[in-house]
Write a structure and sequence with these properties.
This protein is an all-alpha fold. Helix content is 77%, strand content 0%. The protein has 9 helices and no strands. The chain is globular and about 70 Å long. The N and C termini lie far apart (54 Å).
């Protein structure tokens, strides 16, 4: 136990927990689920990534240089943009496939993170990495999931219903009218996860940030207030980011003469 009362984890503790995951992988092989290898690779990746991040954050927290904070933030954005692109079955060709998700996350997550730091939390300086990096990470992670689901839903439904869209265009509807129902379905799908999280928080589940603060010794009421703040920020970031991504992708799927451009999707 540390002097602050926090229970420190030993390598044996982590090894024991990892052994449970290996046991699950073995069971999945026995049941022929076809996911055991992926599970082990994902576990190894998360181990390496989180330990490296711990080393990076240790250096970053001691240096507290704005350039280093900005560099890490843009690395996180670049990786999140790739993950959004990789999770879509049909994505926009060329730079739009990557740029739509990355630009939407930049506009939503970065602006909301800066707003929260400058107006709500007000650390000194405002880019203090102990606040800026975890806040941006939670916003990017959740916004990334929402945008990926919304874009995948949008492009998949557009291809499945292309004849219906073209019939509406032939009847004189604009591109916005012809694809409006699909846009609303895509946005609804992107927002469902965060709505479910807010609906069940405190009853079915204890959110990660609140749990972490309680384990670190924070008063439960303060942990609950921080968790509420984060949930509201994540909901706003996911909603705004998904809207920006769906609008950008929708415009790209039609040309200046309101023709559906199937060739712009993979």
């Amino acid at each position: 136990m540390s002097p602050s009362g926090l229970i420190l984890l030993s390598p044996w503790d982590l090894s024991l927990a990892a052994g449970l995951m290996v046991l699950l992988a073995i069971l999945s092989w026995q049941l022929r689920l076809g996911i055991g290898r992926r599970m082990l690779i994902a576990g190894a990746r998360s181990t390496v990534q989180l330990l490296l991040l711990g080393l990076v954050l240790k250096t970053l927290f001691s240096a507290a240089h704005p350039g280093l904070v900005a560099l890490l933030a843009f690395v996180m954005l670049a990786v999140a943009g790739y993950e959004v692109m990789a999770r879509q079955k049909h994505r926009l060709r060329g730079v739009w496939g990557y740029g739509t998700g990355a630009l939407s996350m930049f506009l939503s997550s970065f602006s909301i993170a800066i707003l929260a730091l400058v107006v709500l939390l007000q650390p000194t300086p405002w880019y203090t990495p102990q606040y800026a990096i975890p806040l941006l990470g939670m916003l990017l992670g959740n916004t990334m999931n929402g945008i990926a689901v919304a874009l995948d839903n949008l492009t998949r439904q557009t291809l499945d219903k292309r004849h219906q869209i073209e019939a509406r265009l032939a009847l004189g509807q604009t591109a916005v009218q012809a694809i409006g129902d699909i846009q609303r379905d895509a946005l609804r799908a992107g927002l469902i996860p965060i709505v479910n999280s807010m609906s069940t928080a405190g009853i079915v589940s204890l959110p990660g940030m609140m749990t972490g603060q309680i384990l670190a010794g924070s008063p439960p009421m303060e942990a609950a207030k921080y968790q509420l703040l984060i949930l509201f920020l994540i909901a706003a970031g996911t909603g705004l980011g998904s809207m920006a991504a769906v609008l950008l992708a929708s415009r790209r799927m039609f040309d200046a003469r309101s023709r559906l451009r199937r060739d712009r999707l993979t």
